[in-house]
Amino acid sequence: MARRALQAINWSALAERIPETERTALSAFKSKSDKYLQRMMAHPEALPKIDWTYYKKTIVTPGLVDKFQQQYESISVPYPADKYTADIDNEQKEAAAKIQKFIQEANQIIGNAETELSKLRAMIPYEEMTMDDFMDAHPTVFLRTDKVTTWPHTEDSQEDLDDDTPDDEHH
Q1: CB of 40 within 8 A of CB of 32?
Q2: In 3D, which of 5, 87, 72 has the Cα closest to residue 45?
Q3: What confidence tens digit (pLDDT) does each residue in 26-38 have?
Q4: Terminus of the chain with fewer CB atoms < 10 Å: N or C?
Q5: What is the number of alpha carbons within 13 Å of residue 90 lying toward its C-beta?
Q6: What is the DSSP string of 4-32?
Protein backbone atom coordinates (compact mmCIF):
# COMPACT_ATOMS: atom_id res chain seq x y z
CA MET A 1 0.00 0.00 0.00
CA ALA A 2 1.12 3.52 -0.64
CA ARG A 3 0.92 6.47 1.64
CA ARG A 4 -2.04 8.66 0.80
CA ALA A 5 -2.83 12.14 1.96
CA LEU A 6 -5.60 14.46 1.03
CA GLN A 7 -3.84 17.29 -0.73
CA ALA A 8 -6.47 20.00 -0.43
CA ILE A 9 -9.18 20.61 2.13
CA ASN A 10 -11.61 23.43 1.55
CA TRP A 11 -11.37 24.95 5.01
CA SER A 12 -13.43 28.02 4.09
CA ALA A 13 -16.34 25.80 2.96
CA LEU A 14 -16.15 23.97 6.29
CA ALA A 15 -16.08 27.26 8.18
CA GLU A 16 -19.25 28.41 6.40
CA ARG A 17 -21.15 25.30 7.49
CA ILE A 18 -20.40 25.34 11.20
CA PRO A 19 -21.86 27.65 13.83
CA GLU A 20 -19.90 30.65 15.05
CA THR A 21 -19.35 28.99 18.43
CA GLU A 22 -17.40 26.14 16.80
CA ARG A 23 -15.02 28.30 14.76
CA THR A 24 -12.25 28.21 17.39
CA ALA A 25 -12.42 24.41 17.52
CA LEU A 26 -12.19 24.28 13.71
CA SER A 27 -9.19 26.59 13.79
CA ALA A 28 -7.46 24.36 16.35
CA PHE A 29 -8.26 21.27 14.27
CA LYS A 30 -6.91 22.94 11.12
CA SER A 31 -3.71 23.83 12.93
CA LYS A 32 -3.23 20.22 14.10
CA SER A 33 -4.03 18.91 10.64
CA ASP A 34 -1.51 21.24 9.02
CA LYS A 35 1.20 20.25 11.51
CA TYR A 36 0.51 16.55 10.93
CA LEU A 37 0.58 16.98 7.15
CA GLN A 38 3.81 18.96 7.36
CA ARG A 39 5.45 16.24 9.52
CA MET A 40 4.23 13.51 7.21
CA MET A 41 5.43 15.26 4.06
CA ALA A 42 8.88 15.81 5.62
CA HIS A 43 9.53 12.06 5.45
CA PRO A 44 10.09 10.23 2.17
CA GLU A 45 7.39 7.91 0.96
CA ALA A 46 9.80 5.05 0.28
CA LEU A 47 12.91 3.93 2.16
CA PRO A 48 16.07 5.52 0.83
CA LYS A 49 18.02 3.49 -1.74
CA ILE A 50 21.38 2.30 -0.52
CA ASP A 51 24.32 1.85 -2.87
CA TRP A 52 25.28 -1.67 -1.77
CA THR A 53 28.07 -1.98 -4.35
CA TYR A 54 29.89 0.96 -2.76
CA TYR A 55 29.76 -0.68 0.68
CA LYS A 56 30.83 -4.08 -0.73
CA LYS A 57 33.94 -2.41 -2.15
CA THR A 58 34.65 -0.43 1.02
CA ILE A 59 33.98 -2.98 3.78
CA VAL A 60 36.43 -5.86 3.80
CA THR A 61 34.58 -8.23 6.18
CA PRO A 62 33.19 -10.97 3.92
CA GLY A 63 29.40 -11.41 3.89
CA LEU A 64 28.72 -8.51 6.29
CA VAL A 65 27.29 -6.18 3.62
CA ASP A 66 25.27 -9.04 2.08
CA LYS A 67 23.82 -9.81 5.52
CA PHE A 68 22.88 -6.14 6.10
CA GLN A 69 21.42 -5.90 2.59
CA GLN A 70 19.30 -9.00 3.15
CA GLN A 71 18.04 -7.70 6.52
CA TYR A 72 17.39 -4.20 5.14
CA GLU A 73 15.42 -5.48 2.19
CA SER A 74 13.40 -7.86 4.36
CA ILE A 75 12.16 -5.02 6.57
CA SER A 76 8.47 -4.51 6.02
CA VAL A 77 6.54 -1.90 7.93
CA PRO A 78 2.87 -2.55 7.28
CA TYR A 79 0.71 0.39 6.38
CA PRO A 80 -2.25 0.60 8.75
CA ALA A 81 -5.41 -0.91 7.33
CA ASP A 82 -8.17 1.48 6.39
CA LYS A 83 -11.00 0.57 8.75
CA TYR A 84 -12.94 3.80 8.62
CA THR A 85 -13.55 4.77 4.98
CA ALA A 86 -16.31 2.18 4.53
CA ASP A 87 -18.00 3.36 7.76
CA ILE A 88 -17.76 6.98 6.67
CA ASP A 89 -19.18 6.13 3.24
CA ASN A 90 -22.08 4.26 4.88
CA GLU A 91 -22.78 7.17 7.21
CA GLN A 92 -22.67 9.53 4.24
CA LYS A 93 -25.23 7.37 2.38
CA GLU A 94 -27.46 7.25 5.47
CA ALA A 95 -27.20 11.01 5.89
CA ALA A 96 -28.05 11.51 2.21
CA ALA A 97 -31.11 9.28 2.62
CA LYS A 98 -32.21 11.21 5.73
CA ILE A 99 -31.72 14.49 3.87
CA GLN A 100 -33.86 13.25 0.97
CA LYS A 101 -36.55 12.13 3.40
CA PHE A 102 -36.44 15.52 5.13
CA ILE A 103 -36.68 17.30 1.77
CA GLN A 104 -39.73 15.22 0.83
CA GLU A 105 -41.40 15.93 4.19
CA ALA A 106 -40.56 19.63 3.93
CA ASN A 107 -41.94 19.78 0.40
CA GLN A 108 -45.12 18.10 1.61
CA ILE A 109 -45.44 20.66 4.43
CA ILE A 110 -44.80 23.46 1.93
CA GLY A 111 -47.45 22.02 -0.39
CA ASN A 112 -49.98 21.87 2.47
CA ALA A 113 -49.13 25.43 3.47
CA GLU A 114 -49.51 26.64 -0.12
CA THR A 115 -52.91 24.91 -0.34
CA GLU A 116 -54.00 26.58 2.89
CA LEU A 117 -52.63 29.91 1.67
CA SER A 118 -54.56 29.61 -1.59
CA LYS A 119 -57.73 28.96 0.46
CA LEU A 120 -57.04 32.07 2.51
CA ARG A 121 -56.42 34.16 -0.61
CA ALA A 122 -59.72 32.89 -2.10
CA MET A 123 -61.67 33.92 1.02
CA ILE A 124 -63.47 37.18 1.45
CA PRO A 125 -61.14 39.65 3.21
CA TYR A 126 -61.83 39.76 6.95
CA GLU A 127 -62.66 43.44 6.91
CA GLU A 128 -65.45 42.72 4.40
CA MET A 129 -66.86 39.62 6.17
CA THR A 130 -70.13 39.52 8.01
CA MET A 131 -70.43 37.46 11.18
CA ASP A 132 -72.20 34.75 9.19
CA ASP A 133 -69.34 34.68 6.65
CA PHE A 134 -66.82 34.37 9.48
CA MET A 135 -68.82 31.59 11.13
CA ASP A 136 -68.96 29.70 7.83
CA ALA A 137 -65.22 30.15 7.25
CA HIS A 138 -64.16 29.20 10.80
CA PRO A 139 -66.82 27.05 12.45
CA THR A 140 -64.49 25.77 15.19
CA VAL A 141 -63.20 29.21 16.17
CA PHE A 142 -66.40 31.17 16.06
CA LEU A 143 -68.03 31.90 19.43
CA ARG A 144 -71.67 31.09 18.98
CA THR A 145 -74.11 33.59 20.36
CA ASP A 146 -77.10 31.25 20.26
CA LYS A 147 -75.60 28.94 22.88
CA VAL A 148 -74.34 30.13 26.26
CA THR A 149 -70.89 28.82 27.18
CA THR A 150 -68.46 29.36 30.00
CA TRP A 151 -64.82 30.18 29.81
CA PRO A 152 -62.59 28.75 28.19
CA HIS A 153 -65.44 28.11 25.73
CA THR A 154 -64.23 24.71 24.58
CA GLU A 155 -66.45 21.63 24.13
CA ASP A 156 -64.91 19.63 26.97
CA SER A 157 -65.05 22.50 29.47
CA GLN A 158 -68.82 22.99 29.21
CA GLU A 159 -71.26 21.56 31.71
CA ASP A 160 -74.40 19.93 30.48
CA LEU A 161 -77.13 22.40 31.39
CA ASP A 162 -80.71 21.33 31.01
CA ASP A 163 -82.61 23.75 28.83
CA ASP A 164 -85.82 22.59 30.55
CA THR A 165 -84.95 24.37 33.81
CA PRO A 166 -86.68 27.73 33.96
CA ASP A 167 -84.64 30.70 35.09
CA ASP A 168 -87.16 31.48 37.86
CA GLU A 169 -86.23 28.38 39.89
CA HIS A 170 -82.72 29.71 40.53
CA HIS A 171 -84.02 32.71 42.49
Answers
A1: no
A2: 5
A3: 999 999 988 988 8
A4: C
A5: 5
A6: -------HHHHHHHS-GGGHHHHHHHHHH
